[in-house]
# Entry
Amino acid sequence: MADKMSLQGDFFSQEHVKLTNARRKSLKRILVVDDEEQIRSMLSQMLTHEGYEVHVAENGEEGMRLVGRYAFDLIITDMIMPVKDGLKFIMELVRDYPDMKILAISGGGAIKAERYLTMAGYLGDIATLEKPFKREAILALVEQQLGIAS
# Structure
């Protein structure tokens, strides 16, 4: 009987943790900024499926307009984009919103991705991830940045 109670207790505590994390996620608003529609769409769908409220922008300029209108808990931004690239976007975010959580992603370009991401890291407490990335890797970084235990 004690074993059965213990198993039920474990099950309910695990379910409670899942529900608590789901509630925490549902209260979090994420902005995804990437010039590639395919990446924006994939990240938006993945994060929405995980329970987050997601907004998207094509470049840093559009991203700054959205940041002015909504309170985001996390911004995921590509580094190489037209109009306003990720580095300029991050510099503005760090200046205007110093407590903003940021995750920089890059697949590289004229310069290797790791160099772009290293530059982003110099701007503050910014998480970085090189493209292509695995679903588990980005979700783990999102949860880490948002302070959500998995």
The CA atoms of residues 48 and 54 lie 6 Å apart.
